[in-house]
Request: fold
Amino acid sequence: MLVPYAGVALMIAVAIALAAVFLLGSIYLGPRAPNPVKSEPWECGTVSVGSVRRRFSVRFYLIALLFVVFDVEIVFLFPWAVLARELGWAGFSAMAVFVAVLGLGLAYVWKRGALEWE
Amino acid sequence: MNALRDHILSLVVFAPLVGALLLLLVPALERGAIQVIGLFWSAIVFALSLLLLRWFDGASGGMQLTEQHAWITSIGASYHLGVDGISLFLLLLTALLTPVALLASFASVEHRVKEFVICLLLLESGVLGALVALDLLLFYLFWELMLIPMYFLIGVWGYRDRVYAALKFFVYTMAGSLMMLFALLYVYATAPVAGQRSFDLPVLIAAVQNAPYPIGTELLLFGAFALSFAIKVPMFPLHTWLPLAHVQAPTAGSVILAGVLLKMGCYGFLRFALPLFPEASYWFLPPIAVLALVGILYGALVAMVQKDIKSLVAYSSISHLGFVMLGIAALEVKATTGAVYQMLSHGVSTGALFLLVGVLSERRHTRLISEYGGIAREVPIYTAVFVLIALSSIGLPGLNGFVGEFLILIGTFGSRVFDITALGPGAGRWLAVAAASGVILAAVYLLWMVRRVFFGPLRNPLNKGLRDLTLREGCVFAPLVILVVLMGVAPGYFLKRIEPAVAAAVSDVQQRARLAGMGRSLEARP
Amino acid sequence: MSAHDLAALVPLVILTVTGALCLLLEVTGVPVGARKLAPRSHIVWCSELGLAATALVLLRLFARADQPALAFAGALRLDRFGLGLGLVVCVAAALAIPVAVGFLRSRDLDRGEYYATVVFAALGMIALALAADLVFLFVALETTSVAVYILAGIDRRSSRSPEAALKYFLNGAFASGILLFGVALCYGATRSTAIGALGPALRGGDGALLASAGLLLVLVGLGFKVAAAPFHMWAADAYDGAPAPASAFMATAVKAAAFAALIRVSVNAQIDAGSGWISAGWIIAVATMTVGNLAALAQRRVKRMLAYSSIAHAGYALGGVVAAIGGHTPALGAVGFYLLAYTLMTTGAFGVAAFFERADGAGCSHDEWAGAATRFPLVSLAMAIFLFSLAGVPPTAGFLAKLNLFACMIDGGFYWLAFVGVLNSLLSVYYYLRVLVFMYMRDPDPQLAGHGGAFVGAGLAIAALAVLLVGLLPGTMLDLAAQLRDVAPG
Reply:
């Protein structure tokens, strides 16, 4: 009963072994010449400027969220558009409800003032 | 009149509850008005309960004035009430003690009077309901309903250590109750009832009669019920909550606690534990009798060394309830009738003693014996009442305490229940003799206390000019004093109504135990 | 779209519309940027009406569901079990909304979004109770969870609420991951996501091991949601840190819905009465009630005590579930009834906590409630009723529910489970009464204040009366609950 799983077990074993080889290899074989610039968390060759603890305006997140919502809407709209005739009125009404709900959401967000930048 | 008669038990049980609800609805009136309403209402309940006497057929040992209605049909619980000789007078006693306790606390309860009266009325409903319920679920409901108001009575209106006492009281009692609940559910779920499951007591008794449990199971079940009831009584060694609760409770709480609540334990044995598990009863009765005896002597000895009058009375309760339990354990018509009678007379006498102590502590705010001495000259009427009640509690012939104790002792003396056990033949005799010494000890501790409090020279100047009983307090004690004398000189009136029910219960248990192969020696009676 | 599809859609659509309406009323009623809040009574009424309409539809479906039916190609199952627990969810939401109003107003949170989130959460829960497909179950669970995370963190200016939300979210996400992995394994074993396919797969064949692993992970994931030990760690922090009205909803409705899913999955798995699953089940049940009770004993905050008590109650209910899986079907009805009683009393108790709660979780400790009975006699009376019910003292719903549950366990042969349950109830008496000791037997704390109002009063009063009524005259409810047994076909 366990035989079919042998492959899975083998794969897990190989994955672990491979990861271990890479990690240990880099620890033992890699050359090491530490200096202060290298050990910074953000290391790109130049000295970093300012604090990392800066806050972004919450509006960026809002806009990003709204973008995702309406982007996903497109994902649903395209397939429907391709098959609009085959799906007929049932498909249309389903899509209309979907868009209406999103429109409602937009109206809410708008009225709430989330779209105003200042 | 017929409609009234058919529903008289419901009416009596629920009248206090209705009163409590009405009080809940009325706005916070002034203290006096609420007290008068409460007193008036509970007096009406007492008057209603007197109707029971009129309609009760003393010659019959069965359930009377029964009511049965559908309640929770889907789980087989019905609203089934009934009264017999065992519960009749306990019912009346409860209905009497509530107005008495209310009247007695007119002066001593100063804050949250409305809640106080509501608690007392709820408590009354709970006790009355538990006394007449013939459905196990309904009984359990009322049984727990007694707990809640008592918890508040002790915890809110009690003395210094009231919170601890209240919690201990609740947790102890609840522990027993839950064991009982488990056993009760076990019986409910496994009793071979034809058709639908039932919580109905007669149905369940009939079912276990037809197909008894294996003795091992029955012993466990009886043990669970007995634990619950023994905590309530309380029997030695489960008594530790009682002195604490009594000492910390307000006077009214102590009166109801001693007067009725404790009896519920004894009542539970008679009504539920014995009939449901007759065979196991035979195994358990001898140890119960021994523990009862220990309780009698232990309670008396500890009472003797108390410094506080109230805790002395509390320990005397343990001793007196030991008598009751001994009478029940003897399972003999005389002894058990005596036990029921002793429940009543203990309720009256000890209730009165607590009231008397309450009067004293209201005046002087102390209950230490050493604070008093020689106050008989200052308060002659009070002293007379106190001495009378103390004598009745000791068991002086002619007063109420004597009848019950005497019946219990002679009944136990002749009882054959213990013959087949490890206690050996004739165990009833030495049990009775040893128990009789409890009566003597009672005389010692009570009379000694009376002497130290009331007689001798008046040493403490604070006791000079102590006020005697007022008219209101006189009204509190009048019915109790009358009962003490009445129950002493005319016990026949009560016994005549108690005995048939007790005889029916006792012979039922004996017979079924005999069927189960126990209690053979009963037949070998000379 | 079949008639069953439509029937299943109606309650969900009503709730969607209600939630959307709450949001719209919020933005249309008050001008943008208005700082001063106008009371949102109309939104409260709107959400209540929506919930009432949903409940009516569910009742109607309940009455007609003598033959269970599948809807949406097996995604939902319209049976009395799911509909009944959906009704419990409606009750929880309908009670949690009014008791929240006073607190929300005092914290400047009385906005349409709160009510809409509750309604959307209820939507997810009802879907969860009806879910007959593992993927749909997951979607419903996430709909519920996301809404509930928001509720936990709704008081964002408080120091505790965001912390509670984050803890809840991280644990919940972890649980969801486990559950989803379990769903994947089940799919691997049965080539189907239908819950009903689990039973045959477990009975033998190639996929039995895989299916067991999948079932185990799904049950663990749901175990997190009902806060069963050892997956209960988050519950105390989440319920204590979240605003009390949100806890009232989280501790009851989420639990009812998650129990519905848990029961549906485990009953459909058709586990052998003698198998290790049963032993594991009752060990978890015992552990849950014991851990909850022991931890509750030590608490000094009422809210936290209630959180642990909710864990303990989950343990009792799990005991009933074990009896049901062990072959005693009436236990399902007992669990359903228990969840109803639990919902009434716990919503009420948290509602009283919401009455007293102030900023940053202040006003919720035993000490602060000292002498509450003299200042707030009616609220204290209600709390006394809820606490006695939680402790299982008659004549309350909590007593009857426990009685019914323990009777079922005994009936099913689980004597020890019932006995441990009884012992645990005894343990619980102490800490429930301790609250009453503070409320009734201590000198009043002059600092104590409450936010009353018509909604709060009505909510608490209805909950308290319902606790008493269900305790005294449970006939109809028990009859209804007895029909909650059709959770699996055949």
Observations:
- Chain A has three helices and no strands.
- The interface with chain C takes residues 1-2, 4, 90, 101, 104, 107-108, 111-113 of chain A (CB under 8 Å).
- Residues 84-112 of chain A form the longest helix (29 residues).
